[in-house]
Write a structure and sequence with these properties.
Structural class: mainly alpha
Strand content: under 5%
Helix content: 40-55%
């Protein structure tokens, strides 16, 4: 009976590497100041509401002033998504 031939498999060769593409990370200049301003306005709104026992910033809103403060903070997080 004839002896079977041994097939020699080629060693693994990785595919040729592509040249690294440069990623341009331009951050819009207005994003960071607006984001921080929204955070600080929201925080200040809530702090003023608690310190003045609800008479400031807007007395007619009563406890909805907390929602307004958190709205500013949420808007700051929304603006932060534009930061690259």
């Amino acid at each position: 009976m004839p002896k079977s031939r041994i097939r020699k498999k080629a060693d693994y060769t990785p595919p040729p590497s592509k040249p690294a593409a440069s990623i341009k990370l331009d951050s819009r200049g207005w994003v960071a100041p607006v984001m921080l301003a929204m955070f600080l306005i929201g925080l200040a709104w809530i702090v003023v509401f608690y310190v003045t026992d609800g008479s400031l910033p807007i007395h007619a809103l009563r406890n909805w002033n907390i929602v307004v403060g958190f709205g500013f903070i949420a808007a700051g997080f929304g603006v932060s998504t534009q930061w690259k």
